[in-house]
């Protein structure tokens, strides 16, 4: 799954930076690129364990 998400996030970053640098900025493309990037970050960080996970397991 990472092999699919990371390239899409890179493309979204490139598109957002290209739109930011262009003379005619299209806000909708920028918003879509940012949303795609944020969804990708959520999916990648969902598998990262929390720092407090061990403490939560001990309390149960």
Describe this structure in words.
The chain is mostly helical. Helices cover 77% and strands 0% of the residues. It has three helices and no strands. The model has no long low-confidence stretch (mean pLDDT 84).
Question: Care to give the gist of this entry?
Answer:
The protein has 60 residues and is mainly α. It has helices spanning 2-21, 27-45, 53-59.
- Structure class: mainly alpha
Instruction: Detail the poorly predicted runs.
Output: none
- The arrangement of helices and strands along the chain is HHH
Range of helix content? over 70%
Count of helices?
3
What is the CA-based Rg, rounded? 17 Å
Separation of the first and last Cα atoms:
32 Å
Give a count of the beta strands, DSSP E runs of length 2 or more: 0
Average pLDDT score: 84
Apparent shape: elongated
Biggest sheet: strands, sense, closure? none
Query: What fraction of the residues are assigned to beta strands by DSSP?
Result: under 5%
Keywords: Membrane, Transmembrane, Transmembrane helix
Describe this protein with a few key phrases.
60 residues; mainly alpha; 77% helix; transmembrane helix; transmembrane
What order do the helices and strands come in, and which of them pair?
Blueprint: H1 2-21, H2 27-45, H3 53-59
Helix pairs in contact: 1-2
């Amino acid at each position: 799954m990472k092999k699919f998400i990371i390239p899409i996030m890179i493309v979204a970053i490139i598109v957002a930076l290209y739109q930011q640098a262009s003379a005619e900025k299209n806000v909708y493309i920028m918003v879509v690129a940012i949303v795609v990037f944020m969804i990708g970050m959520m999916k990648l960080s969902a598998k990262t364990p929390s720092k407090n996970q061990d403490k939560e397991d001990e309390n149960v």
